[in-house]
Amino acid sequence: MKYFRFLIYFVVIIINFIFQTTVFEAVSIMGIKPDTALIIVVSVAFIQGEFDGIVTGLFAGLLQDSFFSLYLGCHMFIYASIAFVCGCFFKGFYKESFFLPIALCAAADLYSSLVFYVLNILLRGYFNILGFFTSVMLPEFVYTMLVSAFIYRLVYYVTEIINNRFGEQRRLF
Description:
Blueprint: H1 2-21, H2 23-26, H3 36-48, H4 50-68, H5 74-87, H6 99-121, H7 129-165
C-alpha cells in the first residue's frame, strides 16, 4: 500500500518533469518558470510526513540533476533537506488550510535559490547576489507562489484519493 503511494508520487514527478520541460517553457516569463517539483516535494512532505517527502524529494532532485545540473546531487540535497523541514510540520497542522503550505513553499523557494546560488554560482566566482536576486530569485519566487496553491490542492486530492482507495486513515496529529 505504501509502495503504491510512492509509485503514484513517482508518476506525478515524472509527469511534472514533462510539463516543466515542455509546457512551462512556453509560459515562462523572462525565462523564469515556477519550480513545480519543489512545490510537489513541499506538498508531499507536509501532507504525508518527512519520509515520504524525502523519498519524493530525492527522486525529483535526481531527475532534475540528471538532465539540468552540472553536479549530481545538488537538487537532491536541496529537495531532501526541504522535505525534512517541511515534514516536521506534518503533525501539528491541518492539511486543509492553504496558508501554511504556501508559506512553506515560499520559504523553500528562497532556501532553494540561495543554496543553488552558493553551490552553482558563487563557487564559480560570480559574486553579484543582488543581480541574481532581482533577475532570478524574486521573479521565480513570485511565479512559484502563484502556482503553489493550485499544485498543493492537486497533491492534496491525489493523496486523499489514495488514502480513501486503500483505506488508510490520515493522521491529523
